[in-house]
Amino acid sequence: MSRLGLTQLDAVLAIARRGSFRAAALDLGLSTTALSNLIARLEAEVGVRLFNRTTRSVSLTDAGRTFVEKVGPALDDIHAAMDTVRSQQDVPSGTLRINAFATAARQIMAPLILEFLRRHPQVHVDLVTEGRIVDIVAEGFDLGLRRADLVPSDMIAVPVGPPERHAVVAAPSYFRTRERPRVPPDLLAHDCIRVRLPNGALYRWPFEKDGQAVHIDAEGPITLDEASLARLAVLEGVGIGFFMEADIREDLAAGRLERVLDDWTPPTAPISLYYPGRRNPSAALRTFLDLARTLGRTGAPLRRRGEAG
């Protein structure tokens, strides 16, 4: 094993966890070809095949399963030892992997992530945005970013902004010929931009007023799975859309979109970074969390270096 290193071992565990060379390669920041070559070298070294591979699936062989069972705990100990050493660094360095949903990522990009990189140029941030909620430990992330009410109970949460709101909007041109909805059920007589969730289900628009909760199965001419595409459709007057307020705030201010049912969209839980409890977080993670807590306390963009206090 002297010619092999942690990268090869991490690769085996990533493929076993994800069940796919392509997905594991993305997690590891490698090309699929490079990952295949790493595994081929490892299999040549140990003298057995670790994976059964077809064009459609990847699974562990019996030898591979034994390998993962033996190597996994030892590799956890090695990474824990490395984290202990990194925690003693004076200068933050290395890579921080963050999993987030797109709207939240956009909100913290400038005030937190880019500001952190300006202050700590030796750190690389790997930000992955997706709608599904993942197990950040199992999938190799240092941090997750979700609404506070979606953070797993066994994680430590750090709020990084004020409570958020939804917004129901349409282009002024849409309302020239259509009566504005006054209560959520009125939406059933309108063209709405339908939203498909990562699990394939259609999103039911949630509303609440005076303790009364209502969910509407909005119907309309198009179904989309990405907020930026839904925004384009609404701007073109196709129908009414349901967004996080942060995604269309500038459109509202500029008059490109008009809001309805404002009194039915109360604030929701704030977005929060979350992470597993660690005795020895790396200097990069510790410093990033310190900056995040500052952002959470102020609720306003952090000053850049050189700006007046």
Describe this structure in words.
The structure is a single chain. With 309 residues, this protein is α/β, with parallel strands linked by helices. The chain has three domains: 6-86, Winged helix-like DNA-binding domain superfamily/Winged helix DNA-binding domain (Arc Repressor Mutant, subunit A, Orthogonal Bundle), CATH 1.10.10; 94-162 and 270-298, D-Maltodextrin-Binding Protein, domain 2, CATH 3.40.190.10; 166-264, D-Maltodextrin-Binding Protein, domain 2, CATH 3.40.190.290. The chain has helices spanning 6-18, 21-28, 32-46, 62-86, 102-119, 172-175, 227-235, 245-254, 283-298; strands at residues 51-53, 58-60, 94-100, 123-129, 143-147, 156-159, 166-170, 193-195, 205-209, 212-216, 222-224, 241-244, 258-260, 271-275. The strands form five sheets. Strands 4-3-5-14-6 form a five-stranded mixed sheet, covered by helices on one side. A three-stranded antiparallel sheet has the order 12-7-13. The longest helix has 25 residues, at 62-86. The chain starts with 5 loop residues before the first helix and ends in an 11-residue tail after the last helix. 28% of the residues are buried. InterPro entries: LysR-type_TF_proteobact-type, LysR_HTH_N, LysR_subst-bd, WH-like_DNA-bd_sf, WH_DNA-bd_sf. It holds the Pfam family LysR_substrate. Residues 4-61 form the HTH lysR-type domain.
